[in-house]
Amino acid sequence: MSEVPCVRVRPFAGEETRQELAARDLLHPAYEITVEDDWLYIPVVAVPDGYTVVEHAVPERDQQTMPSDVLGFEPSYTRLGDIAILDEDDPDRAREIADALVASDLPLSSVVNRASKVKGELRVREWDVLVGETTTVHREYGTEFMLDIAEVYFSPRLATERHRVIEQVRPDEQFLDMFAGVGPFAVPAATRGAHAVGVDLNPVAIEFLKENAERNGVSDRVTAINADISEIDYTEWADRIVMNLPHSADEFLDTAVRLAGDECLLHYYDIQHEDDPFGPGERAIRGAASEYTVTVETRHTVRSYAPHELNVCLDVRLSR
Q1: Can you give the residue ranges of the SAM-dependent methyltransferase TRM5/TYW2-type domain (predicted)?
Q2: Other CB atoms within 10 A of residue 62 CB
Q3: Distance separating alpha carbons of residues 156 and 122, to the nearest angstrom
Q4: Confidence band (pLDDT; 50, 70, 90) for 19?
Q5: SS3 state at 255
Q6: What is the percent of the chain where pLDDT is above 90?
Q7: Does residue 73 share a domain with residue 53?
Q8: What pLDDT does residue 28 have?
Q9: How far apart are CA 88 and CA 94, in angstroms?
Q10: Burial of 238 (0-12, 13-18, 19+ CB in 10 A)
């Protein structure tokens, strides 16, 4: 405990006062806000006008060492489980950031730097492994996914979009993910009571999908298939289909129509120019699903993909 200058206010005014002091950059970062005898004591770095300021004993704050404390600047990185993912062109800068991340108090055990774009039929990329390894467990909206980023494709930035779709899933519906990866759609769909089928060309991804179904207690409701989606025998089966292959999903629409039941909701992902982000996908779906009544329920922008390009999703109901 240390005697420091504190703004003293009643608790009901505490949050408003804290925000005002924070906006003026007056909060003391080294000490905790304290309540005593129905007064709130807010430690400050300087005496502000307009407040009652007293010397009061307050506890010191337990401060974490952050990467910026080591580097002198805030590094840019993405978290995936306990892996920090960098996108640095300069290998020396990447090494400096990796060392700082490991030296910090963040719960990280590995640091990698992107060494290539996503490429090939299996949509994987190369990595420079600076610290640790490429296998991790990622947690997302209560579901755990084990994966190896050197062997499978996975984007933590799509967590919100996946959750948007999964929130629509009903118990006992027949859910099909045409490009399932390690199961970020199929596994949480099963946790909501769906019967989920996940298909992927990548045998490593399918093994992780099986592991993740087991890890989350839904292996009895998940079928994992290592195959070309055009070859699976689930004709007219699906109540809901996810087509998250945005650069080329249109090439698989005939297969999606074959797999769709009499009533099916299709989540179709696309990347298009901002001038007409939904039109090409909608026209392609209507062309492929001529035997159905096609109703576009949602036109949804997922994120900006590149300058003037958008990653979008069409939620489309097919009714025979």
Answers
A1: 77-320
A2: 7
A3: 18
A4: confident
A5: helix
A6: 75
A7: no
A8: 87
A9: 6
A10: buried
Two structure tokens written together for 295: 């109703």
Q: Identify whether 141 is part of a domain.
A: no
Determine the Cα–Cα distance for residues 296 and 153; give it in Å rounded to an integer. 28
Please count the other Cβ atoms lying within 10 Å of the Cβ belonging to residue 276: 12
Rounded Cα distance, 117 and 112, in Å? 14
**Claim to verify: residue 166 and residue 246 sit in the same structural domain:** yes
**Which tens digit of pLDDT belongs to each residue from 80-121?**
989 999 999 999 999 999 999 988 888 889 999 999 988 888
Judge if 276 and 233 occupy the same domain. yes
| Residue 160 token pair | 């919100």
Asked if residue 48 has pLDDT above 90, the reply is no
Instruction: Name the β-bridge partners of 58.
Output: 2
Residue appearing with tokens 């899933």: 169
CA 169 to CA 308: how far, in whole Å? 32
- Convert the pLDDT of each residue in 250-276 to its tens digit: 999 999 999 999 999 999 999 999 999
Let me know if residue 140 belongs to a domain: no
